[in-house]
Backbone:
C-alpha cells in the first residue's frame, strides 16, 4: 500500500467525524448566536456572522412569566423522581438479579411493556385520578407519574450492573449474619455506584426534557421548564431572541451533564442494548 | 445458596408503583374507551361506539398513517446513519472520546428546544437553511409550512436529534466485538466489504435489532417535535396518533374517544413488543 493510500485510509474517518460533529453542533451554535444578537441582527438577511453579543435576551427569557419558577419545579421533579426511582429500583434490581425468585419473568416483561406504552394511555386516567386526589398540578404528582418510565429504566440498568458483582461477596456477608437490606446497602450500592450515577444522569435528562405528561398534568403551579419554553412557541415570529435564550437555558444543564459525564451516559445507554 | 428470608419485600415498592402507574391506567383506559364522556359532563356507556367512530372517521386513520410514515423513514435513516458513523468513527484512535461527547449533544436537547431551534432555522424567509441553500442557487422550500414538505422536515429534525442514540449504541457494540474473527478475515484476504458483510454484521445483529425496535417504539410515540413545530398541521399533514390523542382529550375534552385511540394504539405497540420478545432468544433475559 502506498503511503498516500494509507494516509487516506486513516484520514477519511476524521473527515466523516468532522462533518457529523459540525452538523450536530451547528443548530445549537446558531440558536446561541441568535440569543446573543440584538433584534436587528437576529432578523438580518443575509445573516450576520460577526456581532457584539448582548445579554438582554437571557434576562428577558428568565424574567418572563413563570419561567424561573418552572426551572426550579423541574429541578425538584428531577430530585424527587430520582429518589423514588432509586428507593424502589435498587431493591427491585437486587431481587430481579436473582435467578430463582417468584414472578421474575412476568415482572421483567411488565417493566418492558410499561416503558413502551404510549403516554396517552396513562395520561387521561391519571388526569381523572389526580384531579380527584389533589395531585393535579403538583410536582409530587409529576414525579410519581414519571416512575412509569424512570422505574423500569432504573431497574433494568441497575440489574445489569448488579449482575457483574460476584455472588461470593454477598454470601460471605450473609454468613456473618448481615441482613439482605444491609447487603444491598453496604455491598451492592457502593460497588455499583458508577452504575447508579449513570442511571441518575439518564433519568434526570429524561425527566428534565419531558413534555407530554407535564403538558397534561400541570397547569400553573407545577409547570415545568419544557412548558415554559413551549410558551415561547406562539411568538416565534415576534421575539426570536428571547425564545432562543429560553432554549439555551433549558439545554445548558443537560449539555453540561453530557460534557462532564460522557462516559457514564454512553455506558448507561449502551448497557441495556449491548449486554 | 442459603435461603434469603423476606426477599419478596424487596420487590414490593416497585410493584406498588408499577401497579399504580400502569395497571390502574390500563384498566381505567379500557373502561373509559367504552364511555361517551366529555370532561365535566355526565358519562354514558356506549359500548364499542368510540372504536367504530375513530376507525371509520378520517382523523385516526390519517394520524396512524402519518405516524408510521414518520417512524419508518426516521428509523431507517437513523439506523443507517448511526451504523455508518459508528463504523467510521470506530477506526479513529485519537480524539474518538471528544468526537462522541460532541455528537451526543443533540440527544441531550429537550424536544421542545429542538422544535424551536429548527423553527428558527427552517423559517422560509429569515431562516439560515434557506439562506445557505440560496448561496448554491437552490430555492429553499417552506419546510414545515406546506403539506408535502412538512413531514419530511419533521423526519429530518428527528434524524438530527436522535441519530446519536443509534450511533452511541452501535459504536459501543462495535468496540465490544472480539478481535479474532476480524484477524481471521484479514488473514484470509477478505475485502473490507466482505469483512463487514460476513463478520461485523452477523455479530452486530442482536444489538441492531434492539436498536431498531427501540427507535421504532420511540418514533411511533412521537409528540414533542410535532407539538413544538407544526402542532399537527398544515392540514393535518403531520398529525400523529399522540398529538391526535392530545387534541381529542385536552382540546375537545372527549375523554372516551381519546382513550379509545390510546387503547387501539397500545395494542399496535404491544404487538411490536411481543415480536421483540420473540426475536430475543435470550428468554426474556434482556427485558
Residues:
Amino acid at each position: 500500500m502506498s503511503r498516500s493510500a494509507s494516509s487516506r485510509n486513516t484520514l477519511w474517518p476524521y473527515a466523516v467525524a468532522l462533518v457529523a460533529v459540525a452538523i450536530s453542533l451547528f443548530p445549537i451554535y446558531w440558536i446561541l448566536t441568535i440569543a446573543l444578537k440584538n433584534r436587528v441582527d437576529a432578523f438580518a438577511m443575509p445573516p450576520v456572522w460577526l456581532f457584539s453579543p448582548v445579554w438582554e435576551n437571557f434576562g428577558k427569557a428568565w424574567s418572563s412569566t413563570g419561567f424561573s419558577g418552572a426551572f426550579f419545579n423541574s429541578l425538584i421533579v428531577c430530585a424527587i423522581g430520582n429518589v423514588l426511582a432509586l428507593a424502589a429500583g435498587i431493591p427491585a434490581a437486587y431481587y430481579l438479579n436473582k435467578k430463582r425468585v417468584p414472578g421474575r419473568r412476568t415482572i421483567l416483561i411488565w417493566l418492558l411493556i410499561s416503558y413502551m406504552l404510549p403516554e396517552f394511555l396513562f395520561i387521561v386516567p391519571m388526569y381523572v385520578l389526580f384531579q380527584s386526589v389533589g395531585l393535579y398540578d403538583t410536582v409530587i404528582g409529576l414525579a410519581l407519574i414519571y416512575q412509569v418510565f424512570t422505574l423500569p429504566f432504573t431497574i433494568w440498568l441497575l440489574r445489569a450492573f448488579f449482575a457483574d458483582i460476584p455472588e461470593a461477596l454477598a454470601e460471605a456477608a450473609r454468613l456473618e449474619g448481615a441482613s439482605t437490606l444491609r447487603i444491598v446497602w453496604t455491598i451492592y450500592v457502593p460497588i455499583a455506584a458508577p452504575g447508579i450515577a449513570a442511571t441518575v444522569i439518564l433519568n434526570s435528562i429524561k425527566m428534565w426534557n419531558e413534555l407530554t405528561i407535564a403538558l397534561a398534568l400541570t397547569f400553573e403551579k407545577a409547570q415545568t421548564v419544557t412548558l415554559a419554553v413551549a410558551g415561547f412557541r406562539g411568538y416565534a415570529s415576534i421575539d426570536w431572541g428571547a425564545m432562543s435564550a429560553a432554549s439555551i437555558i433549558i439545554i445548558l444543564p443537560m449539555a453540561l451533564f453530557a460534557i462532564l459525564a460522557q462516559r457514564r451516559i454512553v455506558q448507561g445507554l449502551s448497557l441495556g442494548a449491548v449486554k | 445458596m442459603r435461603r434469603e428470608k423476606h426477599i419478596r419485600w424487596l420487590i414490593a415498592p416497585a410493584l406498588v408503583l408499577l401497579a399504580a402507574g400502569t395497571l390502574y391506567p390500563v384498566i381505567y383506559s379500557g373502561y373509559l374507551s367504552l364511555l361517551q364522556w366529555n370532561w365535566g359532563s355526565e358519562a354514558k356507556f356506549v359500548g364499542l361506539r368510540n372504536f367504530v367512530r375513530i376507525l371509520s372517521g378520517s382523523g385516526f386513520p390519517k394520524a396512524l398513517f402519518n405516524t408510521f410514515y414518520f417512524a419508518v423513514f426516521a428509523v431507517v435513516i437513523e439506523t443507517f446513519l448511526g451504523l455508518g458513523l459508528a463504523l467510521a468513527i470506530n477506526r479513529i484512535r485519537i480524539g474518538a472520546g471528544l468526537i462522541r461527547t460532541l455528537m451526543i449533544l443533540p440527544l441531550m436537547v429537550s424536544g421542545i428546544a429542538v422544535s424551536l431551534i429548527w423553527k428558527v432555522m427552517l423559517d422560509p424567509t429569515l431562516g439560515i437553511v434557506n439562506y445557505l441553500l440560496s448561496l448554491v442557487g437552490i430555492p429553499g422550500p417552506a419546510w414545515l409550512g406546506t403539506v408535502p414538505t412538512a413531514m419530511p422536515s419533521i423526519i429530518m429534525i428527528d434524524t438530527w436529534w436522535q441519530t446519536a442514540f443509534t450511533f452511541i449504541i452501535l459504536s459501543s457494540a462495535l468496540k465490544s466485538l472480539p478481535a479474532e474473527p476480524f484477524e481471521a478475515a484479514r488473514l484470509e484476504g477478505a475485502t473490507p466489504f466482505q469483512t463487514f458483510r460476513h463478520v461485523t454484521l452477523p455479530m452486530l445483529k442482536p444489538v441492531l435489532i434492539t436498536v431498531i425496535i427501540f427507535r421504532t417504539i420511540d418514533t411511533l410515540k412521537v409528540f414533542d417535535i410535532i407539538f413544538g413545530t407544526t402542532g399537527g398541521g398544515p392540514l393535518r399533514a403531520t398529525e400523529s396518533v399522540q398529538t391526535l390523542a392530545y387534541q381529542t382529550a385536552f382540546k375537545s375534552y372527549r375523554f372516551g374517544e381519546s382513550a379509545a385511540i390510546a387503547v387501539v394504539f397500545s395494542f399496535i405497540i404491544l404487538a411490536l413488543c411481543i415480536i421483540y420478545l420473540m426475536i430475543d432468544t435470550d428468554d426474556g433475559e434482556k427485558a
The longest strand of chain B covers residues 35-36. Residues 19-56+254-287 of chain B form one domain. Residues 59-89 of chain B form the longest helix (31 residues). Residues 204 and 218 of chain B are 21 Å apart (CA to CA).
